[in-house]
Amino acid sequence: MSTQAKASPAIRRDFERVSPELVERASKFQAAILADVVGRRGTLNARVQGLSPSMKVAGPALTVEVRPGDNLMFHVGLALARPGDVIVVDGKGDQTAALCGEIMATQAQSSGVAGFVIDAAVRDSHELAGGAFPVFSAGTNPCGPTKAIGGLVNWPASVAGVAINPGDLIVGDADGVVVIPREDVPAILDLAQKKVDAEAKRIAAIKAGDLRPGWLDKELRAAGVLAEGESL
Fold this sequence. Notes:
Structural class: alpha/beta
Number of domains: 1
Radius of gyration: 21 Å
CATH superfamily: Ribonuclease E inhibitor RraA/RraA-like
Number of strands: 10
Organism: Cupriavidus yeoncheonensis
Helix content: 25-40%
InterPro entries: RraA/RraA-like, RraA/RraA-like_sf
Number of helices: 7
Keywords: Lyase, Magnesium, Metal-binding
Order of helices and strands: HHEEHEHEHEEEEEEHH
Protein name: Putative 4-hydroxy-4-methyl-2-oxoglutarate aldolase
GO molecular function: lyase activity; metal ion binding
């Protein structure tokens, strides 16, 4: 009997998603707030940006891994996506060919997909930027993709420097995209609300004339810039 291990399937059809209720809560927070309370990590490389600053997206990640310039598995992910999913594509940061355009975005929007986050180029950017479907990408290129090379769907992925598991929470806005592990989402959202409340209080204090943050002298002493007992 052969001892060779059976290869794992390239396509996983089912995975546990962050709940719609948590997605709805998360959608009310800025990506920056979530990034702060998740430990200042989990943000995609800044090359991945919305095609329009007004674009926002929130939802569970459906992960796709492709070879640079080939979108065959992207189409698989699009066929399997459920309403509310964010299709996240590890395109290796390649910008020599677009992995999608207006046709795929239209299909996704009609299927109820929440948005695309693509570490690669896209095209039809004028039409996409003016539309209601959120597309975050690493750039644009008019050259179309090939559709010939296998990859992975709904496997752990590394996208623009961040580890992403299927079902993790994706939140994107004008600042970029942040990823929160699915199991951490409830606690992170509680911390995010506390952060929002604290920032609102600080902004109100600044407008009332309290211009210097209370923590500044302490941190300057810790950094060795001020001597003990000295103030700025």
